[in-house]
Design a protein that fits this description.
The protein is α+β, with helices and mostly antiparallel strands. Helices cover about 65% and strands about 15% of the residues. Among the domains are: about 55 residues, no CATH class; about 45 residues, SH3 type barrels. About 5% of the residues have low confidence.
Length: about 160
Amino acid sequence: MINLIPLMMPSAGAAASTSANGGSSYSMIILIVVMFAVMYFVMIRPQKKKQKEEQEMRDNIQVGDEITTIGGIMGRVVTVKEDSLIIETGADRNKMKITRWAVSTNNTAVEKAEAEKAAAKEAAEKEKAKKMEEAAEQSKSKRKKSKKKDSTFDD
């Protein structure tokens, strides 16, 4: 087990590294490397994954999608260009030109994903109910067979 108290105190750490125990400087380097590795897997990697998903969502915007901007403006996409979008907002169909990076969510894609999840859940429930019915039928048939065997022994 690594003794962390001398490593945390600068004067004690210096004294420990200058003493006959030369392995503490290596343990300090290993500790720093481990801390950077933990920071990478806890903070940096999930953030990069989230940014990649957001960029993919922005790249997959199509005409007719309902979107919400970072500022909270909701509208339907009318035109898609390389780095900008034109959206219609409100009942009077006001048109606005926005940049792609300003898109917060694609509501159409979110609704499709939720519908797919609901359909998958419903299919799983139906499959589970079907298996339950089959198990109930099998147990009934086993009970009938066992009753027939019991009645033959009673005679």
